[in-house]
Amino acid sequence: MSRAGMWSFAALVIALALSGCANKGRLAPVEDHSGGSNKSTPRPITPSAENAGKPGYYTVKPGDTLIRIGMDNGQSWRDILRWNKLDNPNLIETGQVLRVAPPQPDTVARPATPVASSPAVVASAPKPASVQPATSGATADAAEEALSFQWPVRGNVIAGFDESKNKGIDIGGKAGDPVVAAADGRVVYAGAGLRGYGNLIILKHNNTYLTAYAHNQTLLVKEDQVIKRGQKIAEMGSSDADQVKLHFEVRRQGKPVDPAKYLSAN
Questions:
Q1: For residues 237 and 192, what is the distance between their CA atoms, to the nearest angstrom?
Q2: Which of 68, 115, 199, 234 is the most exposed place for a label (fewest CB within 10 A)?
Q3: Phi, psi dihedrals of residue 121, rounded to the nearest 5°
Q4: Contacts 24+ apart (CB under 8 A), 57-63
């Protein structure tokens, strides 16, 4: 290559280098979505947030678990999991709004297409049967209100009901003493996942009442198992307690009530 060619090539290289330096760091512009402020983008509101405060919904508080929410609302934690289409029962967040009552089916029937040539058929249609379900519901409510419970263990009451300090009664006994179901029901929880209760069993008796049996030594039933009144469900113990005892609760629509008012005399 001639000397003139070498100088031309060198000049080209220098020009390209200078052009590269001029454009160094000039990337595509970053779009500002903050509206001119330095605040971070807020978390999107979950679709369920619009239901906050409505009947049948619950807003998660710090320290809540599905087990606790279920017991406080008279429901099975598994039902709450299903109603809210949750994948993981351990992943709930403070402020999250959960359905804690069964979804109501759409009972509004579409009107039949009118047939002009058959007015007699329309006139002879049966009357709505709404009166009978209302009567049945009232009967069911009365039956639930009349529900009584047998004592779950034989022993002395060592701590009575106190709405703020003791949400049930504590009954003394010996380790291994039988704990029986206070009434017919279904096991909605059996485990040790609720702090302060130790080995716990929760039975759902109907749409109104739950009973809870805490601090057991051994659990003898499983979730979703149907239980009969007087059936042995556990053995008394001292799990998560300072002594051997059964902590027994009656929950009416999730709210603790004094078990002494519901227990039978014998």
A1: 13
A2: 115
A3: -65, -40
A4: 57/97, 57/98, 57/99, 57/100, 57/101, 58/97, 58/98, 58/100, 59/95, 59/96, 59/97, 59/98, 60/92, 60/93, 60/94, 60/95, 60/96, 60/97, 60/98, 61/94, 62/94
CA distances from 223 to 67, 148, 204, 255 (A): 12, 23, 11, 21
The token pair at 79 is 């039902």
Residue 240 CB burial class (10 angstroms; 0-12, 13-18, ≥19): middle
Pick the CATH number of 48-99 from 3.40.350.10, 3.20.20.105, 3.10.350.10, 2.102.10.10: 3.10.350.10
**pLDDT tens digit sequence for 27-71:** 333 333 334 444 444 444 454 678 888 999 999 999 999 999 999
